[in-house]
Known about the structure:
The chain is elongated and about 45 Å long. The chain has a single domain (25-145), classed as Sandwich (Immunoglobulin-like). The chain has helices at residues 2-18, 87-90, and strands at residues 26-27, 30-31, 34-40, 58-63, 71-74, 80-85, 98-103, 117-130, 133-145. The longest helix has 17 residues, at 2-18. The two termini are 23 Å apart. It is mainly β. Keywords: Signal. Residues 1-24 form the signal peptide.
Amino acid sequence: MVRSNVYLISILVIMTSLSSPSHGLVLGDLPIGSVAIFGLARCDLKGDPNTPPISGGTVVLTCGGLTDNLAETITNPGGYFLIFLNFLETLFFHPSICNIRIYLPTGDCTISSPNAVLTGSLTFLNVVLTNNTNVAYYGVGPLVSGIVGT
């Protein structure tokens, strides 16, 4: 199993190095080298800023038909999270088919959600040029109660 993953990664790296950057994510006329996705998870779906944050929730980025998560992180004690995608990961990223899922830790919130999952769509914010790379920034929200698909 490990050996097949190494071969798959090697093939992806070779294919990426042979292709021009225009085959990756492009917004307008700007080729995107990285994507930053951030958000805040609170124990209220209406956006009440006085509710406690969701601390220690697992946040995953899923896209289209991928069976694996494209990226994963954990909310910090303040409920904030950041997912940063490198160039190779942006090849699988398209905001219209990607979303965020937050798996609620047990006992932290009183949000009623099937399977203890919240979902959120991605909202484009801006593109910033850093170190000769265009970084696309996305926010997440609003969060809604959601069921994990099979």
